[in-house]
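Risk register update: the risk of archive-format incompatibility is retired. Evidence:
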Amino acid sequence: MLQKPRGTRDFLPDEMAQRRAAEAKMRDAAGRWGYGEVCTPTFEHIELFTMRSGENIRQEMYTFEDKGGRQMTLRPEVTASVARMFVNEGRSIPKPVRWYYVADCFRYERPQKGRYRQFWQFGVELIGADSAAADAEVIMVADDLLRSVGLDYDLKVGFLAPMKHLLAGVDPALQRQVMGYLDKRDLEGLAACLQSCGQADLESSLSGLVSCADPEEAFEICGEIPEADRIRGIFSVLEGEEIEYAVNFGIARGLDYYTGMVFEGFAHNLGAENQVVGGGNYRLAHLFGGEDTASCGFAIGFDRVMVSLGEIEAPRPPVVAVLAPAEMQVHAFAVAREIRAAGVRAEVNLLERGIGAQLSHAAKGADYACIVGKREAEAGTVTLKDLHAGEQREMTVASAIAEVTGSGAR
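Archived output:
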């Protein structure tokens, strides 16, 4: 028996209903902020990702050569694709551009809880606005999306400038090591690293930076840097909107990619793989042939959100099972068509069995049974049975539809 590929999943209807319900809430939230949905190709030229992340990313990607000899890859993330699309299609659109996407991505890595080889991202990109207000909006959109589905999580917000200022005279390779320790809040590892490289004088400032409770404490450590007003502006908006967050000037999120504000969110019940959102400022358009354009965005790990939420009850509209003896099947389909035309889900019995067996089967998944026998057909009626209450009455199809739709979702 063939099995699904490692790191992928099958979703049955009930689970898909839960995912779509959560996704719909996020879509609604993004729309209220003025973000419109976009869609990019599932596969792209491999250079789109190696130009940004270097050749080492190849080992994490599903790559292939097409029939024209071109090197292609299944997308490992979507931000680069959106930036490429902006350069191709969006440069004439009035700025700022507010886009969101829901897409599956592919990475060849070791599968574990909350980490898969095929996974879904819900992302937002704000392109063409270079301001504290733009940074704050993106953070608030992420928070709104996650709160809209009822996720219990912690939001951490930082800015790279104070850390970069302190590390300005340090070799780039060492910078990456140091930022890795800061990102993990591994102060012992940080101290050992700085000691071995002759930069022990930075230990106090850097360890103090990750412990700052507000921007002013950071400026006491690194001085009044050029980005100070922007940093103050971001946190001022977040405070004014009463967003729940914690300051963390130790967030690294890739020195070679993010340029300013950075933020992350962590669910409370996922163990080690608990990051559910990450984002910040970046500039990619110029890499793909466009103008150097300020951009800000984030990606939500939709699969981790669903794992964190656990079993959630998706709204389910009433289901009507249309039952009939074999000789009345054509009439049963006509009745079902009329029910569906009113926006109600109707399922016609397709197996050759008696009405009693049909009722038993219908009771496993339907809310109502609409029985169409010879007598009902001649009278232009149906017998509607409430499968939860056990009550049944003969009535017209229109009256049956009114009865069902009046009950609302179950």
